[in-house]
Amino acid sequence: MILMHDIIREGDERLRQKSKDVETPVSEEDINLLKDMLEYVHNSVDDEIGPKYGLRPSVGLAAPQLGILKKIIAISAYDESGKLHDYALINPKILSYSDELTYLPSGEGCLSVDREVKGLVHRRKRITFKALVLENNKLIEKTIKLKDYIAVVFQHEYDHLQGYLFVDRINKENPFYVPENSVKINFGDEEKND
Ligand code: ZN
Question: What distance in angstroms lies between residue 141's CA and the mean position of ligand 1's atoms?
């Protein structure tokens, strides 16, 4: 199982490199890596396993964060309406996206960035991509449309495949700048605490 010491941190050059397409047909080794990555994300938020192994809670993991420069992403996150999105993806490719942007009012975090970074990350509000998706132990090519929070999570992970970290996307002069075409993501709870 993947543990925190398997995850490379900011400063490691591998986080700055572009990942390569996974060769098809996808090997057993790559499928197992994908499964292990999704397992980490699940374990990280498990009430027992998370604390027991000192896992930092997360909603996604990209292979470069393990020092493996392959286009592999695992995501498990709840959207604004409380629906769980589990995605185990190989070779994701963005097909289209909205001009409209969106952002998390609390900013973003990353397992590979240990320091707290203040500032907003504006991402596409809607995004369409294709990928090989692992479902019921089978890889199927699919086109997926995401919006709002889950779209943000996907773009954060997709950035890892390009060698970008979320800190690169924060406006240096004005970290809390909000462009005209960017709308805040609202989670019910957060809105109450505003
Ligand atoms: Zn990250």
Answer: 24
